[in-house]
Amino acid sequence: MGKKGGVRHLKRMPAPAFWPSHRKEFQWAPKPIAGPHPAEKCLPLILIVRDILHYAKNAREAKTILSEGRIKVDGKVRREPKYPVGLMDVIEVPDAKSIFRILPSPRQGLDLVKIPKEESSFKLCRIENMTTVLGGDIQLNLHDGRNIFIKSKDFRSSAENSFETLDTIQLALKDQKILKRLKFGEGSYAVVTSGRNIGRSGKIARFEEATSTRPGIVTIEDSQGGTFQTTAEYVFVVGDEKPLITLSGG
């Protein structure tokens, strides 16, 4: 029997556990469309409007709100109910004069954190990979699917432009310009995006390089003076000595 193609529906049981809908109360869940974030690391926009912000009582009302262009994601109006919203995305509701950022939260996966208006003009993006394109220019591949091009002469002109993977860039949402580079390394402030320490934050105290048999290990010191370890893949730098953004729990 031949392959029938992709599946357009998603049942609640295999959906991510942090989604705000009960597994045994509902049979179906909205399946995120292809977009900037993978399905297991995102929240469909309809769930945010209906189940988190409670602007709608049901899916029909939520779709009406979105179709009227009342919700912005990263400065752009999004009308697709199944649009995937993920880590560090900025959600703006002009009618309610409310702005939120998607951040990791302890025991909750991804959650919305209310932020002041001055923080809504930029976004933090982690560099997942770097590639050389035709002409020798550098392309930064970011965690949310964006690709930022940098001229090769600018890339090597100063220490500030010597980007590396796992570094974070502060990106202006209006013109997509790089405002600042946050280096991944000891002394930087970071938040954990996955694993059992998800949502915890602090300064990077030590970084052990990866080997052929184990991943890179990062030791983080929290605000209470305690330390914990996680893999480098789960660490997202959000500031130099202190975070540039409002984190979950203040």
Verbal overview:
By secondary structure, the protein is mainly beta. The chain folds into 3 domains: 10-119, RNA-binding S4 domain (Structural Genomics Hypothetical 15.5 Kd Protein In mrcA-pckA Intergenic Region, Chain A), CATH 3.10.290; 122-182, Ribosomal protein S4, central domain (OB fold (Dihydrolipoamide Acetyltransferase, E2P)), CATH 2.40.50; 189-239, SH3 type barrels (Roll), CATH 2.30.30. The protein has helices at residues 45-52, 59-67, 152-155, and strands spanning 10-11, 28-29, 42-44, 72-73, 76-77, 84-86, 90-93, 98-105, 109-114, 122-132, 138-142, 147-150, 168-172, 178-182, 189-192, 201-208, 217-221, 227-231, 235-239. The strands form 5 sheets. The chain has a 5-stranded antiparallel β-sheet with strand order 5-4-7-8-9, with no helix packed on it. The chain is globular. 28% of the residues are buried. The mean pLDDT is 90.
